[in-house]
Amino acid sequence: MFLWNTSSLPILQLGSEFYDPVEAATFPQKKLRYWNSDIQLKVDPQLFAAFTPLPNNLPQPLALRYHGHQFQHYNPHLGDGRGFLFAQIQQNNQWYDLGTKGSGPTPYSRGGDGRLTLKGAFRESLATELLQTLGVKTSKTLCFFETGENLVRNDEPSPTRSAVLTRFSLGHIRIGTFQRLAFLQQKENIKKLISYCMHFYYPSELAKIDAEDDNLLAARFLYNVIESNAKLAAQVMMSGFVHGVLNTDNISIAGELFDYGPYRFMPEYDPNFTAAYFDEQGLYCFGRQPASFLWALHQLAASLKQAYPDLPAEEMLQGFSESFQTAIHENFFRRLNLKPLHTDEDNKLLATFFDLLEKNNLKFEQTFFDFHSKKVLNTASLLSFYEAKSAADVLKLLEKYEIADQAKAQSPYFQSEKPTTLLIDEIESLWKPIASHDDWSLYEQKLQSIRGFRNAYT
């Protein structure tokens, strides 16, 4: 039984076997390019460029230790290679991590420079902003600074500008964190980490059980991680998002999407759409993302069984599909702003809607936008367009449903003709003036556009 103090820094209670103290890099320039005022963190932003310790917080940054499967090949040489945990803070009785990307080399950099490109920081900030608006449980970008260094990268015109970014997230414990403990056969640390995660990530669930029963605690922990990641997978799918690299070291125990590299938002509906140019086999294509989450959860279960051999993991993992399907329905009707009938008609509408998307290669976000609050039935031009796409079955089913939220139906956002999107060509268009003459105005306009409909889907 592990005792945790909910008013003290969680990571320090976890202990030094889970991290390495490191030093932040020193940057020649510290130019603030993005600050997320929605997080309401009342500190000097420059702290997140100099990384001066916050008062009564971590005295030194910590690089977290983990392993993981990368494209389903196990790698025991991972860990925080260009980031660290800078601080942990409490808001509304919930602990959050402030973790970095591009803050310099660590013992896990594997020969890398530990830096982040400015374009990488710019891209992550856009992804987290839009995913949050679309109702995806995601880490948030707190800030990023341009740091005045020239970096050489194979996937960007080089030399390219550098940045350091700070994330605001529920936590940085990954499936790969447990895989490392299993690899090293640290059974007691597996038990300790389960207890830690339940206390700081799932406190309300912890209150429902006898926390002194280790076997029950382990089972409830696995159940909650399966449930939260099934819901997350459904949110990702209903946003048309392709993460790109759903390795086990990139899947959070807290059920929160994070660590955005070669992501893409899908333009036209295509289950085989792939984000990463190096994913030649399409392992992490759009349609395979739920299976990727489930595969990763199987690796977590195998790690937990090192300490709890009688854990009914296989039986519990079978619950992923039902939880995912339930969440798919919830998010589908949320995105359309309709009240589900809770009959087989719901399944029919979902199936015929996606059949319409696939057969006609329709634009993903535009189609959801057109069908929101039954807009398609009340707009002659849209009705004509979709009737020409053999959408009669979908349109007929749609008539049976009531609008869930009239205020959202009347949102100014849905009165326009086109939704706010973030396709790859748009990202490149936003980046071009920054790269050529340091003009951030289009980027700022896009952020305002995304934030302008933040309550439309949530």
TrEMBL record:
Coiled coil: none
Cofactor: Mg(2+)
UniProt keyword list: ATP-binding, Magnesium, Metal-binding, Nucleotide-binding, Nucleotidyltransferase, Transferase
Magnesium as UniProt keyword: yes
GO molecular function: AMPylase activity; ATP binding; metal ion binding
Pfam families assigned: SelO
Family, as annotated: Belongs to the SELO family.
PANTHER family per the UniProt record, alphabetical: PROTEIN ADENYLYLTRANSFERASE SELO, MITOCHONDRIAL
Stated name of the protein: Protein adenylyltransferase SelO
Natural source organism: Pseudobdellovibrio exovorus JSS
